[in-house]
Amino acid sequence: MKVKGQTWRQSVRMSQRSLLLLLGISVFTAQGSWQKYNTESGSPVLHSDDNYEWTTWFNVDHPGGRGDYEQLEAIRFYYRTRVCETPRAIEARTTDWISARDTGEKIHADPTVGFWCLNEEQGPGRNCSNYAVRFLCLKEISMAIQGTWGPWSNWGPCPALCDQVGMQLRYRSCTSQMLTCSGPKIEEKPCNGAECTKADCSLHCVMGRVNADCDACMCEEHILLGSVRSAGGLNAEGAAILRSGKLLTLTDHNGHFRIPGICPDGNTTMTVSLQGHASLDVVVPFSSGRTSVLSVQLKRVEKLHILRNPESKTRREGQSAAFCCKVAGTPQADKYQWFHNNNLLELRSESTLVLKDLRPEQAGEYYCRASGPSGAVKTKLATLTIIGRDVHSCNPKPESHLIRLPHDCYQNSTNSLYYDVGKCPSTTCPGQLDNGIRCNDNVAYCCGVAKMEERQLLCQGYQLPTMVVTKCGCQKCVDTKAIVHGRATAADNGEPMRFGHIFRNGVRISRTGYKGTFSIQVPPDTERLVLTFVDNMQKFVNTTKLLLFNTKGGAVYHEVKLLRKKTPVTINPSETNTLELGDAEGQEKMVQIQIPPNSFYKENGEVFTGNVNASVTFLDPRDVSTAAAAQSDLNFVGDEGDLLPLRTYGMFSVDFRGEESNEPLNAGEVKVFLDSTQVKMSEHLNIMKLWSLNPETGLWEEEGSMHLEKKRRGKREERTFLIGNMEIRERRLFNLDVPENRRCYVKVRAFRSERFMPSEQVEGVVVSLINMEPTAGYSTNPRAWGRFDSVITGPNGACLPAFCDEQKPDAYSAYVMANLGGEELEAVSSSPKLNPGLTGVPQPYLRKLNYRRSDHEDPRVKKTAFSINMAKPSPNVAEEANGPVYAFENLKECEEAPFSAAHFRFSRVEGDRYDYNTVPFNEDDPMSWTEDYLSWWPKPMEYRACYVKVKVNSPHEINVRSRNMGGTHPKTVGQLYGLRDTRSIRDMDHGNVSAVCLEFKCSGMLYDQDRVDRTLVKVIPQGSCKRDHVNAMLQDYLVNHLPLAVNNDTNEFTMLAPLDPLGHNYGIYTETEQDPRTAKEIALGRCFDGTSDGTSRVMKTNEGVALTFTCGGREVTRQSVFQAVQSSQGQVVTSVVRGESKKTRRRQRANASRSSRKRSTRNPSIEQNQV
What we know:
1171 residues, mainly beta, 7-stranded antiparallel beta sheet, 10 helices, 78 strands
């Protein structure tokens, strides 16, 4: 640890002669005497007193900064008992054992003050050497034959009365038994009594006396020494030391301070304040000594951030409601304001807002604004719904909800394959709430199914039962859990981050698997799930991501892309080092980082002098493929507390380590140069700032501004740079950004198929938007990006934030893509002919937006994204007032837009699989679960998926159905749970063999958890098929676990589904998860692979098979062309009639995607040669 004192300025005024006389240059022993040489005269000065000896060598400073300061007071700070009270002489040498005289440097010394060497006094380009010193002190034990004294006692209390003089005493005793001690046994010294206090001063001092201002106690003989370090351990120069709000001193360039007269009574509080850091109160500890020492480590100001937003509530008129906001930050918030419909509520200044005896006019939106010394922050909106005393809390009439029926169940009454089963909106309701005042309701009530009726639908050769909602009511909400899962892989080649650590709020909560997979349950009351991925192998940059999750529950899949850490370069810290950043191929470097000499420090603040391995990884926005690797969500909190977006000009991650020790290092003042020619929008030059990422909140915080300055680059070229300064401390990720206020929202919906039915919208889809760099009017690279955003679709789609421009429609453009569980959804085609009806956006606005799917010009490019111009809607044009682009202030209109409003569309690639549940359930919305004996998933948040692997010997791909009925439970026996239709997948090497992984309903407890039901499962290949073989182990299990189902029909297979998770040896695959989609994906991957612990998207037809059928004759299609035409007649106007050829092409694409061992989420605009 390096220490520099404050009294040096006084010492410099001492005469040069006296300094040199007291400076011992070299020492040798002659006839028991110490001999020293004077640097001025060269004549020896002899010390014949044998009772003196030299201390050990001390080195408490390095020549960084102003020079090398070996101050006696600082040495005592760290080695309090190692140096005597009055040293006789001082000696100095370098750490290389070169005497001070031989260095040729100008130096200063005084045994009562110390030694110092100033860099500014040396020759041009030279700095002081690193010196060590030692002192000549009186021996503690005299060599004479006499007794030894014990230590002196502390000075006794001063007996003087106020404003009088008295004598203080101290004592010592002789410790020798046989010898006498010479010298006094008692010492005394004069002392002053405390000042007589004025009658109006009530301050009483337990130590010292009251000062003249009657606001503190003074102890004139006591000295308070201190050391202050900033965040990251650097010396805190200029830190203010205050007592009771009064400035006492500032720390010197070494972060040290010295204050006489402070009483060490255990009651005196000092406040340490430094710009950019949180003020810290420190109590001077009780001490009876003459010197006390404080060591202070400051923390940077922690911006206010929201821990808990107020919760939306539904109440009846006359009830009570409470809204709460929980805010964290250092210093903490000291002011709270509440707003109702954007109007400030007077006299509401607490963190909790309580509303009693509610009236209809109090309904609306509420939010809280907290503020303090570290800024301000606003919560999200919370909606208060107030229902009349005698009004239904839930509309008893169900909403319309169409479900798709099996392909052989066409309904003549509706001329379609759809049937309206109704549904209840998953909105909150008052329920049986009491009048207690609480932030979160103990029990949540939602509108749900109050009554269902069974209907029998006539199909081809059979009747299909379905449950129809006939009445809705208020009941307890379904308990749900939110989960995020996915893979962490390299952005360049998809290499997984194996066994990496995942941190939240600085605490490790999980780790990645061998293939980079992870799964995390989102804690309750989480507002922003900010996770940091740390690679143990040091291949990848530590990456902080904001992962979106579904607040209603369920799992959301994320592909976390990581930047590969740059290979470190070794630099000499005593020299100026410049690192150039920028990876765009064929373009000049974009950023320079300049590190001055002697700028590296250890984490404890000590100057680092060895070689440094420097790795700086730059995310170059001129390369659009890096967008997915951007950290966090490029947002910051503005002065008024609003969450505002940034537009990036590059991010860089810094890793400095000692070459030999590999210990992490900090760096002091570092300069950052941004080539101004890379900033295409001139208005950004004056508002460019440096930002650092807070890894706990995932928000960017300002580090400093940047200014324009011309610099010579090479011998002739002069360039203009934006220059900023920063310190590299505990944060290692930085950003070159500008705040952007031209903002809009884009409405996007995702669907299960290209039919684009309102009832087939898919929730939980991660939709991402990449804002491209402006093009019109700017000379720029159209492949560069400026911002990356993601949202999750809900029941009404999603609204994506984006930059937009009203004056120039093509100033900003954007790429939009969608991902569900690793599957990339397809956008609507734009070529050879653009169909506004399919796209979801009418003309002429669609033409203005210039919609283009990623394969518009090259059919080899993937079809999983589209690009648009971000043209802000004009308020004077009626066609632009109804989406799909909404002005920033119209977010609510975007979120609540009806289905008929313009929107962009994605659809899943329609695979060869159909699911039918007798009791309808939306797997994207766990809250849609209904409590019924015939529910396919009997217990919410415990979803068990089961598959049986069926091998088919046939020249054709065969559709296989599982019919699932109650088997042993008295409430469900003989009743249908549901159907599953799945088409087999052909073996890539054997043309006459295919296989199918067919889902069936697992056996187990039903919703009442009273008794189990062995599901009666029929596996029925459609066509002329014959059962050839049943897995022997599966057959033995079924025989030994009665009852045994009858299997007289060789065209099918019937079993009472096993209760146990059997595994691949039986051809049965099961998985239990908290999300149905995740459970099915894992079980399906194992089934494809034919193993119990692996996964594959390539069907292995000979591995882990349960059943084998041989089918002949012609291929049986899922539905005829005539049926396809019929089903299209009942669809909405956005539907199209597609022939078998198009359906076959989409099936082939679906099968091709299964055959891929990797799920690609790379930018589709540049991904070629993939179909």
